Amino acid sequence: MKTIALFSSIILLFPACKKDNNTNTYKVKYVVTGDSVNQFKISQGATDEFVKADFSGTKDTTLYVPAGTDLKLDAKANNHNLVGSIYVNDVLAVTGTDLDSNQDNKTEVKLEYAIAVK
């Protein structure tokens, strides 16, 4: 009898663990690549966050946000090349590059993307 009760309770737990495919939550990954990056700021709606900067190479951060969220990326570096990208659900949504065309040895990439409400 104990086995039946245990088995029944396990079966009842499975529907509670089922993933909801109708969710309006999106995986957002911000990526910055450059040399001497000194600012990596991300925004979701009215919330700004600074990711640890002062790096060379590539750094990324991933968050989960609801539909209708405005996304922003603001990156700065003291070098000749800076690339910033925003991915939504692992698909490139927007990217930008600053090649320091004015030769001032300062680069900045500002990106914006809005996740539409379905």
Q: Please state the average pLDDT score.
A: 84
> What name is given to the CATH topology?
Immunoglobulin-like
CATH top level assignment: Mainly Beta
How far apart are the termini?
Answer: 49 Å
State the major sheet.
7 strands, antiparallel
Number of domains: 1
Separate helix tally: 1
The name of the CATH architecture is Sandwich
Helix content: 10-25%
Structure summary, number of beta strands: 7
Portion of residues in beta strands equals over 45%
Radius of gyration: 21 Å
Q: Which geometry do the CA atoms define?
A: elongated
Helix-and-strand structural type: mainly beta
The arrangement of helices and strands along the chain is HEEEEEEE
- Stretches where pLDDT falls below 50 for ≥5 residues? 1-20
